[in-house]
Specification:
The protein is an all-alpha fold. It has one domain (26-146). The chain is 62% helix and 0% strand. Helix 1 runs antiparallel to helix 2, helix 1 runs antiparallel to helix 4 (112-125) and helix 2 runs parallel beside helix 4 (112-125).
């Protein structure tokens, strides 16, 4: 059934609804998104390298340098973990410390390299977020088909 009441798929950023049948410029967009994420990782690492270099030039000491590198690595790991969870399970799956908490904004900002790296790796498998969107769309379509395709024409009890 393909009528006006059939649930429409939600568009994904950079892909629109081309992810449904993987037609059009889907593969070209996948390559472009992967390359864009990889460039973002490189640019973010370059900027963070300047930050670490600035602290090293201050001659604050080896411990401070190692502490800064460890903090950046931890922030990147946490941001990558959070981004991976969003892309594979959806934003609704974020609970606890991973949820939208304003106090962790600095962690997500410093960890942008990790988040971009997770986005890059996920874009090698599918359009980032495609699995979540596809599952939700198929569930809506199945509910629609189960109702007979006409939500306004249900039997009244």
């Amino acid at each position: 059934m393909n009528d006006e009441t059939t649930p429409a798929p939600e568009p994904i950023r950079f892909f629109g609804t081309s992810w449904v049948d993987r037609g059009g410029a889907y593969w070209l967009r996948r390559v472009a998104v992967s390359l864009g994420a990889l460039v973002t990782v490189a640019a973010g690492a370059f900027v963070l390298r300047f930050a670490v270099g600035g602290v090293q030039m201050s001659k604050a000491g080896g411990f401070v340098n190692y502490l800064l590198v460890a903090a950046i690595a931890l922030c990147s790991f946490l941001a990558a973990l959070r981004m991976w969870k969003v892309l594979t399970e959806g934003r609704d799956s974020l609970t606890g410390w991973m949820a939208e908490d304003k106090s962790l904004g600095a962690v997500w900002l410093i960890g942008c390299v990790g988040a971009a790296a997770a986005y890059f790796v996920r874009s090698l498998v599918e359009a980032p977020g495609e699995g979540v969107q596809r599952a939700a769309w198929e569930a809506r379509t199945a509910r629609h088909e189960k109702r007979g395709g006409r939500p306004g024409k249900r039997k009244k009890r």
